[in-house]
């Protein structure tokens, strides 16, 4: 979906985002609803009782400012609270309501997830409100939700119901929705293997204070065919990562070595789902492509390439099961199955802040293993070809998932030292 959403009809915006939500398992065929209010005051909303997995733009309903309904179906039964939110908060232009499993878990135990669990979520989600239970589709539900939004919240847990989020655009609302559900999932998975640790507000401010634009701009940019090919490869891997739940809108950096120590890297503050070839930033001789702001992590990618000539691609992302280990003091032992150990060996964890430019002696560069976890922030995966690096990410996430799920069955029995030595001799010698 183009970043210039004003050029996309609300019908198309809604069907694109509901498709993402459904395919990622964050709503059901019948559950959830999305709306957009346009500049005329008309509200475009998902229909009632129509399969969320196969919605088309023609299915989207328009409720005119005067109450006239245009469309083939009835508007969502939850339309009253969408309307109440827009009346209470003129700055909100889009609303998402859904029942994603992790946030429903919080809603049924009547808790609010602490977004300080990962680096960027506090600023994306803002403070989280809490709306008491009222009958779905009722005016009373609209009233209690509107009251929460009047307090300034953009994200609300609905008691025994799910969540509702607002945004200045549908992209903004989805980014908030995705980040909040990710926090909830990470806390839940982390709680199965240990006790979640949270960042302080000052640690989060350190993350936000990084200024990638301080890298000087280059005067001339060359984009030969091999460079363009790498840009496309990065975009394809980022999109694939988003579709498979290995990356979210608000966090994820992918880079590829181009030639020598020059490389291409994803930008900052661009929705990962909507990344385009022109967004990719070229870094050459320590300078950035003019007019573009590269990832906050550019410096560390640059140092990894300089110090590790065998590494030609890097993925830095947040995936829920790996981050379960990133937010706890639990060690991820990948001696689960032969493939996991052969690809990954041991996965070290480093302290939060090791990835900031102020830490020029970062152990991330010195201990550049295939996979490395930064506490409460991300996982870094390195490799030769980008597809290979993506494969390592998948293997790491699957391994973490197996360990988390296995905790309910008993204590993990890893491959023993003799078996590891056999694998080393056969596959790594």
Helix and strand topology:
Blueprint: H1 10-23, E1 33-37, E2 43-45, E3 61-63, E4 69-70, H2 79-88, E5 94-98, H3 101-108, H4 121-125, E6 128-131, H5 139-150, E7 155-158, E8 162-167, H6 170-193, H7 201-208, H8 225-243, E9 253-259, E10 262-265, E11 281-284, E12 287-288, H9 298-307, E13 313-317, H10 320-326, H11 338-344, E14 349-350, H12 363-366, E15 371-374, E16 378-383, H13 386-406, H14 417-428
Parallel strand pairs: 6-7, 14-15
Antiparallel strand pairs: 1-2, 1-5, 2-3, 3-4, 5-8, 7-8, 9-10, 9-13, 10-11, 11-12, 13-16, 15-16
Helix pairs in contact: 2-5, 3-6, 6-10, 10-13, 11-13
Describe this structure in words.
There is one protein chain. By secondary structure, the protein is α+β, with helices and mostly antiparallel strands. The protein has two domains: 5-193, L-fuculose-1-phosphate Aldolase; 210-428, L-fuculose-1-phosphate Aldolase, CATH 3.40.225. Helix content is 38%, strand content 15%. The chain is built from 14 helices and 16 strands. The protein has helices spanning 10-23, 79-88, 101-108, 121-125, 139-150, 170-193, 201-208, 225-243, 298-307, 320-326, 338-344, 363-366, 386-406, 417-428; strands at 33-37, 43-45, 61-63, 69-70, 94-98, 128-131, 155-158, 162-167, 253-259, 262-265, 281-284, 287-288, 313-317, 349-350, 371-374, 378-383. The strands form two sheets. It has an eight-stranded mixed β-sheet, sandwiched between helices. Helix 2 (79-88) runs parallel beside helix 5 (139-150) and helix 3 (101-108) crosses helix 6. The longest helix is centred in the middle third of the chain and has 24 residues, at 170-193. The radius of gyration is 23 Å and the shape is globular. The relative contact order is 0.09. The mean pLDDT is 93.
């Amino acid at each position: 979906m183009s970043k210039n959403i004003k050029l996309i009809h609300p019908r198309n915006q809604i069907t694109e985002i509901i498709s993402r939500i459904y395919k990622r398992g964050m709503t059901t065929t019948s559950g959830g609803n999305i709306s957009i209010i346009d500049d005329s005051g008309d509200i475009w909303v998902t229909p009632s009782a129509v399969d969320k997995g196969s919605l088309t733009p023609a299915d989207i309903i328009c409720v005119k400012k005067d109450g006239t309904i245009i469309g083939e179906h009835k508007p969502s039964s939850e339309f009253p609270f969408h309307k109440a939110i827009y009346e209470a908060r003129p700055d909100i232009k889009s609303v998402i309501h859904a029942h994603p499993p992790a946030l429903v878990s919080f809603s049924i135990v009547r808790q609010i997830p602490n977004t300080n669990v990962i680096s960027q979520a506090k600023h994306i989600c803002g403070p989280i409100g809490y709306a008491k239970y009222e009958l779905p589709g009722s005016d009373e539900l609209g009233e209690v939700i509107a009251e929460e939004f009047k307090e300034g919240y953009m994200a609300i847990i609905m008691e025994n119901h799910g969540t509702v989020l607002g945004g200045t655009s549908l992209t903004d609302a989805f980014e908030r929705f995705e980040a909040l559900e990710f926090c909830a999932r990470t806390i839940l998975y982390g709680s199965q293997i240990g006790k979640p640790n949270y960042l302080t507000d000052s640690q989060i401010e350190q993350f936000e204070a990084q200024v990638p634009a301080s890298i000087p701009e280059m005067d001339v940019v060359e984009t030969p065919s091999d460079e363009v090919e790498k840009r496309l490869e990065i975009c394809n891997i980022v999109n694939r990562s988003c579709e498979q739940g290995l990356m979210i809108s608000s966090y994820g950096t992918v880079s590829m070595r181009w030639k020598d120590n020059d490389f291409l890297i994803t930008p900052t503050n661009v929705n990962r789902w909507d990344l385009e070839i022109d967004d990719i930033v070229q870094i050459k001789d320590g300078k950035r492509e003019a007019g573009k702001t590269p990832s906050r992590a550019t410096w560390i990618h640059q140092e990894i390439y300089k110090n590790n000539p065998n590494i030609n691609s890097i993925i830095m992302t947040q995936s829920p099961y790996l981050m379960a280990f990133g937010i706890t003091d639990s060690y991820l032992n990948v001696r689960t199955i032969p493939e996991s150990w052969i690809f990954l060996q041991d996965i070290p964890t480093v302290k939060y802040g090791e990835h900031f430019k102020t830490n020029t002696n970062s152990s991330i560069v010195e201990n550049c293993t295939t996979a490395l976890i930064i506490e409460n922030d991300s996982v870094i995966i390195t490799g030769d070809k980008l597809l290979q690096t993506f494969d390592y990410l998948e293997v790491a996430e699957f391994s973490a998932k197996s360990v988390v799920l296995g905790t309910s069955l008993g204590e993990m029995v890893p491959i023993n030292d003799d078996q590891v030595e056999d694998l080393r001799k056969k596959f790594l010698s």
